Amino acid sequence: MIPEVIAPPTLLLVHGAWHGGWCWDRLRVALDGEALRACTVDLPSAGGRSGIAEDVHAIRKALAEIDGPVVVVAHSYGGIPVTQAIAGAHNIVHVVYLAAFQLDVGESLFGFYGVPAPPPSDVTQAIPDDPITQFYADVPSSEAERAVERLLPQSTQSFTDAVERSGWRGIPSTYIVCENDQAFPAERQETLAVRSDEIHRLASSHSPFLSMPQDLALLLSKITLGASS
Questions:
Q1: Which phi and psi angles does 162 have, rounded to 5°?
Q2: Strand 124-125 versus strand 38-41 pairing type
Q3: In this structure, is residue 66 part of a structural domain?
Q4: Cα–Cα–Cα angle for 224, 206, 9, nearest 5°?
Q5: Domain holding 194: CATH number?
Q6: How many CB atoms lie within 10 A of CB 20?
Q7: 149 membership: H or E segment, kind and range
Q8: Count of beta carbons in the 10 Å neighbourhood of residue 120
Q9: Taking CA atoms, which of 20, 139, 201, 221 is between 20 and 30 Å from 120?
Q10: Does 194 reside within a domain?
């Protein structure tokens, strides 16, 4: 009798602020080499004015379209709606926070930094003045420049909305610290990483999916296969 071959979980890749699903393209190619299937989602808060609730809806819709178990990978801001979206989901076997905001109930991005809520007229957060330094310090210059061209203003509401449900409290989680991150310094990441069940580190800037996609793919493969065993 030939033993049944069980496919590994599918990865759902959730981008951070100002970005879109396009930012995962190089990583998805590397994941193909690891025989891992990956899907992406575009969060409406990037390029729009919606808050966490709309991003949560988009993530849950993407999850509903995936058959079988899922490992969710959240980058940066993406950790906030992911934390809420996975609460109560039945097909999530693991969640990975990649230099991400692994917040708890009642916490918001601005609150994490101790930043007061802006006036109602401030509906979007502009693209940072030096995005290459902040996001892509170790990304090849041509690749970094192409990425900057695709960035969008980010909804202010998404930075002020507080988490209402904390899915990582009931789902196994891993935190990947980006040690050379200039957008979200490693010291701040470490304060959140202790909330995860395990911690890994990459010697990368804020966007290892662009600067070291193969290294990140190998690490995600290890985490994913471990989650399915």
A1: -95, 150
A2: unpaired
A3: yes
A4: 15
A5: 3.40.50.1820
A6: 17
A7: helix 141-149
A8: 8
A9: 20
A10: yes
- 92 falls within a domain: yes
Query: What is the tally of structural domains in the chain?
Result: 1
Name residue, tokens 């802006």. 118
| Residues 180, 164: Cα–Cα separation, whole Å | 31
Domain ranges, residue 94: 10-228
Paired residues of 95 in beta bridges: 72, 173
Using DSSP, state whether 178 is helix, strand or coil: strand
Nearest to 214 by CA among 28, 9, 10, 59: 28
- pLDDT tens by residue, 101-117: 999 999 999 999 999 88
Q: What is the pLDDT along the chain (229 residues), one digit of tens a residue?
A: 444 557 899 999 999 999 999 999 999 999 999 999 999 999 999 999 999 999 999 999 999 999 999 999 999 999 999 999 999 998 999 999 999 999 999 999 999 999 988 888 899 999 999 999 999 999 999 999 999 999 999 999 999 999 999 999 999 999 999 999 999 999 999 999 999 999 999 999 999 999 999 999 999 999 998 887 6
CB neighbourhood size of 83 (10 A) = 32
